[in-house]
Specification:
The complex is a heterodimer. Chain A contains 19 helices and 15 strands. Chain A is of the alpha+beta class. In chain A, the strands form five sheets. A five-stranded mixed β-sheet of chain A has the order 1-2-5-4-3. Chain A has a three-stranded antiparallel β-sheet with strand order 8-9-10. Chain A has a three-stranded antiparallel β-sheet with strand order 13-14-15. About 5% of the residues of chain A have low confidence. By secondary structure, chain B is an alpha/beta fold. In chain B, strand 3, helix 5 and strand 4 form a beta-alpha-beta unit. The longest helix of chain B has 21 residues. The chains are: A alpha+beta, B alpha/beta. At the A-B interface, helix 5, helix 7 and helix 8 of A face helix 3 and helix 4 of B. The complex binds iron/sulfur cluster. The site of iron/sulfur cluster (SF4) has 11 residues of chain B, from helix 3 and helix 5.
Chain lengths: ~575, ~160
């Protein structure tokens, strides 16, 4: 089926006639299936030679097709993005069970390093010429690969006792190309995971020359909760509560991201009012997320007062989410096909009230900090990352924009009519800690602006689609008609069944691009759900960002990246 | 306790213990072991609106040596577990543990290869807080419960 579907696939087939197995276009996604042998050449071609060039490796993941007939056992899936035209392409490389190996693409993108480690950890796929192929989420000594279909979800393994030694993590494992020598004897320092600035579940080990960090290595996986494994045994609706707990600072936005992906594969459009409500809750979540990120970063820098100011504002927004969804933090508010409950005038008043407090808080904090000498000294020109590196690492969201790349999915690939709102995308120029924090400041103002517009434009109408295969019928219908009862019964017992296929959908979450890659086998449970967590690439880059800086800078840098471990480790 | 030895066997001992317990329960120094979502609710509790300092436990310490209340907030997985154990072991007596939320209590809805099914598999727990996450009031309630327990403990062991 070598039918070119657009220019990209056409050029690719012309260039690699023997290597492209198949290409197709479905649900708006372009997919190319290629032989694994020349994967590096193919991806290099896409990255460097083709027009438009796909300079970003947005995601890299594995899939185990054990239960699919006529299919190779494994697949490595690459999602590429062009920053110029915002085109996307998915490249899939099937691997056989006997030989689950493929070349590493880490020479092409820095992002590939950690992504490939995760695929190795979870699926046991070997990446040739990878600089440091070891486990990343699970502990050393773990047997098997948990995301393989034949690994039972509840098979536990105790951590080997040797691992209890906290300092086992060896800096020697840190792949390091330069061979420089320290003038003095270095000191190894362990930071985290139980450390106030490490957000509970992140760990660095640094080699210090005096107070300067010479080398650093990050260790993650301390909050791996098997989101992706759970998704495979839950119905699509049951996955939503798990998504709450990915980025728990802005849970509503994760719900929306996931529902958006499922709706994409179902091919349904939600009603205008539901769209508008989703915009409102997403932007509220963005504000809440930035409030915590900034508040925590300021506390870590010693500016405690700002924490009180910001949390006061957050508390007021909590009141609104609580009225709307019945919960403060883990809201579980979005449904596939719409939202759970309608927004009432009461809530709208609440939001306006909350904004008064928020405006005051933002004003107070910016007065305290914006021109504060200590704050500027600690953040300006600290933890700089260049545009090129940021793109290579797969940065998205505020951290990418702080480097001066104005990529924002709400503007560039608008969903939910974001293009009809009047808002600006703040960008930085230096890509340092200060820029990253200040971009978030401005984003809060812009989000508030979007919400104000959305509230005035809130259209009347239903908040759920009416498709009986997707939405639960109204209670009056369930009790009042046999048809309603049947529909209710079918959805509850059978679940929602999207057609067989795969989609990747991206939404702009507080931390950047939140992507969901869903493979459906046509049943009520997803065959595979891959979450592309926006802070995974950020954390991957942090090892390099902190090197050369002072140890206190590490705290500032980690704070500015907003590493939310729930979504990092999933 | 030096004081205990000093006054051992004396009739005042019992009362002194109670007095000490009274002092302790209103000056708990929590060590927040926050790993996940629950920790965010704890941030709400220390913030002005819920204000944990009304209960005398606002002085959070991230050093196990300086704290007497270990608050485990969030999911603990097998990679994290040995660290939690070590932190607990490093704390000086007397010490208490609060397990906040479904995850710390029982693994919550993460019944899988990675997550420890309740921290009581590795450390003793004094108070469990239900919820996912518990509301801030729940945390404050747990604190009051713990204070009661501290009083009762002092009354019990002579
Ligand atoms: S109990 Fe719920 S809110 Fe708390 S850490 Fe577990 S999943 Fe998160």
């Amino acid at each position: 089926m070598n039918m070119p579907h657009n220019n990209i696939t056409k050029t690719l087939i012309e260039k690699f006639p023997a290597d492209v197995i198949e290409s197709h276009e479905a649900y708006g996604d372009t997919t190319v299936i290629v032989k694994k042998g020349r994967i590096t050449d193919i991806l290099r071609f896409l990255k460097e030679e083709i027009q438009p060039s796909f300079e970003m490796l947005i995601d890299l993941c594995g899939v185990d097709y054990l239960q699919w007939k006529d299919s190779a056992r494994f697949e490595v899936v690459y999602h590429l993005l062009s920053l110029k035209t915002h085109d996307r392409v998915r490249v899939r490389a099937p691997l056989s069970e006997e030989d689950p190996t493929i070349d590493s693409v880490s020479p092409l993108w820095k992002a590939a390093d950690w992504y490939e480690r995760e695929v190795f950890d979870m699926f046991g796929i070997i990446f040739h010429r990878h600089p440091n192929l070891k486990r990343i989420l699970m502990f050393e000594g773990f047997e098997g690969h948990p995301l393989r279909k034949d690994y039972p979800a509840e098979k536990r393994q105790q951590i080997p006792t040797a691992e209890i030694d906290l300092l086992h993590l060896s800096l020697q494992n840190r792949h390091f190309s330069e061979t420089d020598h320290l003038p003095t004897r270095s000191m190894i320092l362990n930071i985290g995971p139980s450390h106030p600035a490490m957000h509970g579940a992140l760990r660095y080990q640094v080699e210090l020359d005096g107070e300067t960090i010479h080398r650093a290595v990050a260790e993650i996986g301390y909050l791996h909760r098997a989101f992706e494994k759970h998704s495979e045994s839950s119905t699509y609706t049951q996955v939503i509560p798990y998504t709450d707990r990915l980025n728990y600072l802005s849970s509503m936005m994760n719900n929306v991201g996931f529902a958006h992906a499922v709706e994409k594969i179902l091919g349904v459009e939600i009603p205008p009012r539901a769209k508008m409500i989703r915009v409102i809750v997403c932007e509220l979540s963005r504000i809440m997320d930035h409030l915590v990120c900034l508040a925590a970063a300021f506390v870590d820098l010693g500016a405690l007062t700002n924490f009180w100011y910001f949390f006061d504002a957050r508390e007021k927004i909590y009141d609104c989410t609580e009225k709307l969804a019945g919960a403060r933090l883990t809201t579980n508010y979005t449904r596939i096909g719409g939202v759970w409950r309608d927004i009432s005038p009461d809530i709208i008043t609440g939001i306006h009230k909350a904004f008064k407090v928020l405006d005051k808080a933002i004003l107070d904090v910016s007065r305290l900090l914006e021109r504060n000498r200590i704050f500027i000294d600690r953040t300006r020109n600290v933890g700089i990352i260049s545009k090129e590196d940021a793109v290579s690492y797969g940065y998205t969201g505020p951290c990418l924009r702080a480097c001066g790349v104005p990529y924002d999915i709400r503007k560039d690939q608008p969903y939910y009519d974001y293009d009809r709102f009047d808002f600006d995308v703040p960008v930085g120029s230096r890509g340092d800690v200060n820029d990253r924090l200040m971009v978030r400041f401005e984003e809060m103002r812009q989000s508030a602006k979007i919400i104000q517009q959305a509230l005035t434009r809130l259209p009347p109408g239903p908040i759920m689609i009416e498709d009986p295969k997707i939405a639960l019928p109204a209670k009056s219908n369930v009790y009042g008609s046999i048809e309603g009862l049947m529909n209710h019964f079918m959805i509850v017992t059978q679940g929602i069944c999207p057609p067989k296929g795969e989609v990747y959908s991206a939404t702009e979450a507080a931390n950047g691009e939140l992507g969901f890659y869903i493979v459906s086998d046509g049943g009520p449970r997803p065959y595979r759900v891959r979450c592309r967590p926006p802070c995974f690439p950020l954390t991957a880059s942090s090892e390099r960002l902190v090197e050369g800086g002072m140890i206190a800078d590490l705290i500032a840098i980690v704070g500015s990246l907003n590493i939310v471990v729930g979504e990092l480790d999933r | 306790m030096g004081l205990d030895n000093l006054l051992a066997g004396n009739a005042i001992t019992l009362k002194l213990k109670e007095a000490v317990a009274w002092a302790r329960k209103y000056s708990l120094w929590p060590m927040p072991y926050g790993t996940a979502c629950c920790a965010i609710e704890f941030m709400g509790v220390v913030a002005p609106y819920f204000d944990i300092s009304r209960f005398g436990a606002e002085l959070v310490r991230f050093s196990p040596r300086q704290s007497d209340l270990l608050m485990v907030m969030g999911t603990i997985n097998y990679k994290q577990a040995p660290i939690l154990k070590r932190i607990y072991d490093q704390m000086c007596h007397p010490k208490w543990v609060i397990a906040m939320g479904a995850c710390a209590t029982s693994g919550g809805f993460y019944n899988n290869y990675s997550v420890l099914q309740g921290i009581d598999e590795i450390v003793p727990v004094d108070v469990y807080i239900p919820g996912c996450p518990p509301r801030p009031e729940g945390i404050l309630n747990a604190l009051v419960k713990l204070q009661e327990k501290i009083t009762q403990e002092a009354r019990k062991d002579v």
